[in-house]
Automatic annotation (TrEMBL):
<feature type="domain" description="Transposase IS66 central">
    <location>
        <begin position="6"/>
        <end position="131"/>
    </location>
</feature>
<dbReference type="Pfam" id="PF03050">
    <property type="entry name" value="DDE_Tnp_IS66"/>
</dbReference>
<protein>
    <recommendedName>
        <fullName>Transposase IS66 central domain-containing protein</fullName>
    </recommendedName>
</protein>
<dbReference type="InterPro" id="IPR004291">
    <property type="entry name" value="Transposase_IS66_central"/>
</dbReference>
<dbReference type="InterPro" id="IPR052344">
    <property type="entry name" value="Transposase-related"/>
</dbReference>
<feature type="coiled-coil region">
    <location>
        <begin position="9"/>
        <end position="40"/>
    </location>
</feature>
<keyword id="KW-0175">Coiled coil</keyword>
Length: 160
């Protein structure tokens, strides 16, 4: 949303971002989950922002098409808007379910190093090497998430 606001100057994106951040603070203050009535109030505000966004970021006019097949190209802002509308339950699940985090940054970070390794090497040649790499990355990620400290030595990982 930040890019849509900064690059395309779409005001709805900033409003949606601020609302989602407000929701996250409310969830944290409530202990990880909102009451159903409070959650519904936020959902109504979310829908109102996205409804107003339809005017600021309209779908392309497909009535004046000349022989092209398929769906007309949409802007990044329009694609984001359509995804936020279509996947509302998934976007807002963090309000109602304690185990769903506000962001997926930890999951993305866990995958990122594997993708970097693949880009550098092209692939993992032996399957055993991929297993070792994943096991070590998993251990380090778990330590980091649990607040533990660790050192990398020559060939061993030492947890403290």
């Amino acid at each position: 949303m930040e890019g849509v606001w900064q690059e395309d100057k779409q005001r709805w994106a900033q409003a949606a971002k601020l609302l989602l951040e407000e929701m996250n603070r409310a969830v944290n203050e409530a202990g990880g989950r909102l009451e159903a009535s409070e959650s519904e109030k936020y959902r109504q505000r979310y829908r109102a922002i996205l409804k107003n966004a339809e005017a600021e970021c309209p779908a392309p006019d497909e009535t004046n098409r000349k022989g092209k097949r398929g769906r007309m190209k949409r802007t990044k802002a329009r694609n984001l808007l359509e995804r936020l509308i279509e996947y509302e339950d998934d976007v807002l699940r963090f309000m109602d379910n304690r185990i769903v985090p506000f962001t997926n940054n930890l999951g993305e970070n866990d995958i990122r190093m594997t993708k970097v390794q693949q880009k550098i090497s092209g692939c993992f040649r032996p399957l055993e090497g991929a297993k070792f790499f994943c096991r070590i990355r998993s251990y380090l990620s778990t330590c980091r998430k649990q607040g533990g400290e660790f050192e990398l030595g020559f060939g061993d990982i030492v947890s403290r």
